[in-house]
Amino acid sequence: MKRLIITTAFIFIALSLLAKQPKSDSYNNRGFAWGIDIGSSIDISSNGMSSIDADAFFGYKNKFINIIGIGAAVHQSLGNNNTLIPVYLIFRTNFRTRPSLCFFDLRGGYSFNSLESKQTQDGLFGSVGIGFNLYSSSKFNSHIILSYNYSDLKSYTIDDKVRNLKDLQSMSIRIGIRF
C-alpha cells in the first residue's frame, strides 16, 4: 500500500513539473465538450473497496466554465466483486476567464452499487477535487485531478451474517482529457 501511495505521489509530482501553461486561445472556444478520466481510488473508510475508475462526461464549456454537464463512471473494486456506477452532474472551473494551471472539479449525483453476493444498493455520490492542466490547445485539454469521493453505503446481511459497511470515502487520482 505504501508503495502505491509513493508511486502515485511521484507520478503526480513529475507530471506537475512537466505541466505546460495553457495558451490564451485554448479557452476562447465555447459550446459542446466531452471527456474521459481514468484513475484509481484508495479507500480511506476501511471498507476494502479501493478501486480502478473510468469516467466519461459531456456538457457545455466557455471561458469561465471548463465544463458543466453530466457524466457516469465505473468504479471496480480491487480484490472483491464490488462495482459502483455513479451518475452525476459535473462542474469544473478555474474561477477566471484567463487561462490557469489549476481548476476546481465538483461532481454530485447518485450511485448504483453492485456488492458481493449479488447485493445491490444505491445512494448519494459526491466528489470534490483540484485539478492541474497538463497541456491545453484549441482542440483539447489534458489534466490530472486529485479528489475526495463519497458514496452512500449501508450494512447488509448475507447468510445470517451482517456485513457492516461504512459510507465509502476515498481519495483518488485521475488523469484525463477534455475535447
Supply the key terms:
60% strand; 8-stranded antiparallel β-barrel; 9% helix; Porin; 179 residues; 1 helix; 10 strands; elongated; two-stranded antiparallel ribbon; mainly beta
What sort of overall outline do the alpha carbons produce when their principal axes are compared?
elongated
The CATH first-level class comes to Mainly Beta
Question: Which architecture would the CATH scheme give at its second level?
Answer: Beta Barrel
Computed Rg: 17 Å
Portion of residues in beta strands equals over 45%
Order of helices and strands: HEEEEEEEEEE
Strand order in space, largest sheet: 1-2-3-4-5-6-7-10
Alpha-beta classification: mainly beta
Number of domains: 1
The pLDDT mean sits at 85
- Helical fraction: under 10%
Q: Please report the distance between the alpha carbons of the first and last residues.
A: 34 Å
What is the element layout, followed by pairings?
Blueprint: H1 2-18, E1 31-43, E2 51-61, E3 65-77, E4 83-93, E5 102-115, E6 119-136, E7 141-151, E8 156-158, E9 161-163, E10 168-178
Antiparallel strand pairs: 1-2, 1-10, 2-3, 3-4, 4-5, 5-6, 6-7, 7-10, 8-9
Model description:
With 179 residues, the chain is mainly beta. It has one helix spanning 2-18; strands at 31-43, 51-61, 65-77, 83-93, 102-115, 119-136, 141-151, 156-158, 161-163, 168-178. It is elongated. Helix content is 9%, strand content 60%. It has one domain: Porin (Beta Barrel). The strands form 2 sheets. Strands 1-2-3-4-5-6-7-10 form an 8-stranded antiparallel barrel. Strands 8-9 form a two-stranded antiparallel sheet. The chain starts with a helix and ends with a strand.
